[in-house]
Amino acid sequence: MATPPNNNGLAKAKWLKKVQWDENGLVPVIAQEAGSNDVLMFAWMNREALARTVELGEAVYWSRSRKKLWHKGEESGHVQKVLEIRLDCDEDVVLLKIEQAGGIACHTGRHSCFFQKFEGDALEGDWQVAEPVLKDPAIIYPEPAKPAPKAVAKPNKTKPT
Q1: Where in the cell is it found (predicted)?
Q2: pLDDT grade for 3, boundaries at 50, 70 and 90
Q3: Model confidence pLDDT, tens digit, residues 90-115
């Protein structure tokens, strides 16, 4: 794996300055499958994540919940090979054209995170599952093994003589 980019050098990178980062230093990112044009997921990147994505050729996002970089597929093996990066007309949304390893982008085990489809009218409509689970998330993300309970020494009940 390549070494992380020097953050001092990133501050001078012209292409990173062009992105309109939000007040938290983030930009929304859409991952689109290159072959099918399916929208697979939405995520966020900070400057370092976008620079790492360019450097590695694989998607690296910023996890807002974990507050750290997240190399897509680091746990599941479902990495996203980046074929093309685009910036929208307002320069505030990034589009990644990707190849999705394993065909699964969503942590629910589905091809796309956009697996729910609205059906019906404004009063009676509801969200319906429109894509099947391809692989059980429990298999993709197995629980880490719990350490065996420690044996507790029983007190010696014999009386000294």
Answers
A1: Cytoplasm
A2: very low
A3: 999 999 999 999 899 999 999 999 99
Give the mean pLDDT of 121-135: 92
CATH value of 7-12+20-140 in 3.40.50.300, 3.10.20.810, 3.40.47.10, 3.40.50.740: 3.10.20.810
Q: Is 113 annotated as a binding residue?
A: yes
Is 92 annotated in some ligand binding site? Answer: yes
Any known ligand binding at 89? yes
Domain spans of the chain?
7-12+20-140
CA–CA separation, 74 vs 39, rounded Å? 21
Under a CB-based contact definition with an 8 Å cutoff, are residues 61 and 69 in contact?
Answer: yes
